[in-house]
Specification:
2 domains; 4-stranded antiparallel beta sheet
Length: about 220
């Protein structure tokens, strides 16, 4: 009886899974050549974020920001909003090649200028850009947080807050109804009940590096 190459390949993959674990098969076999094409930095990120493909994204801003575009390291639109503020907070799920973007680049516009979504990309185009910031993201996420995600201790949340002086990044794990753990980064939102802050939030001022409390 002739052997079936596809069956042999499947058996080999299953054997490797038992030896090195499913997350490392692509590294061990490199069947499609994709692993070999990655830079050393990207390989390290693949290992660091193995098993995490995204999470919940929360975006808000100090004051009111208009014509907001946020791009990932590839230049792809990661998030966009016509108007963003503390009250107009955005929450939705996201996905990313490395679990979180390597970097994020944010821009927003003068609200009095005219801008509109691009037909192809959806990013806001035109108008007068009044702020432009790029910050690292993936390199900042602690291993402790990722280990907790893999241990199913909570759902990963990536948080973005626009500030006139920069782009603030935060993260935590949702562990229950309004319960969060391992919060870190440039800010933490306030805990609100019945319209009042029962726990103050805080942020690190991008310019002075001073820790300042907030009510949102």
């Amino acid at each position: 009886m002739k052997s079936n190459p596809s069956n042999n390949r499947r058996i080999l993959l299953l054997g490797l899974a038992g030896l090195v674990g499913c997350d490392q098969i692509s590294e061990a076999m490199d069947l499609d050549g994709s692993w070999a094409k990655l830079s050393d930095e990207d390989k390290a990120l693949r290992r660091k974020f193995r098993g995490l493909r995204g999470g919940e994204l929360i975006v808000d801003a100090f004051g009111e920001k208009h014509g907001v575009n946020i791009f990932d390291e590839t230049g792809t639109v990661f998030y966009q909003s016509a108007t963003l503020s503390a009250k107009n907070r955005s929450r939705h799920s996201y996905s990313a090649n490395f679990g979180v973007p390597k970097t994020l680049r944010a821009e927003w516009r003068d609200g009095a200028s005219e801008f509109r979504p691009h037909q192809l990309t959806g990013a806001y185009d035109g108008g007068v850009v009044i702020a432009h910031y790029t910050v690292p993201v993936a390199s900042r996420i602690p291993q402790e947080v990722l280990n907790a995600v893999r241990n199913k201790e909570g759902g990963f949340r990536l948080k973005i807050r626009l500030h006139d002086g920069g782009l603030l990044i935060g993260w935590d794990l949702a562990t229950g109804f309004r319960q969060y753990a391992l919060a870190g980064g440039d800010f933490r939102e306030a805990e609100i009940e019945n319209g009042k802050a029962v726990r103050k939030g805080w942020y690190i001022d991008p310019k002075t590096k001073e820790r300042i409390e907030t009510d949102f």
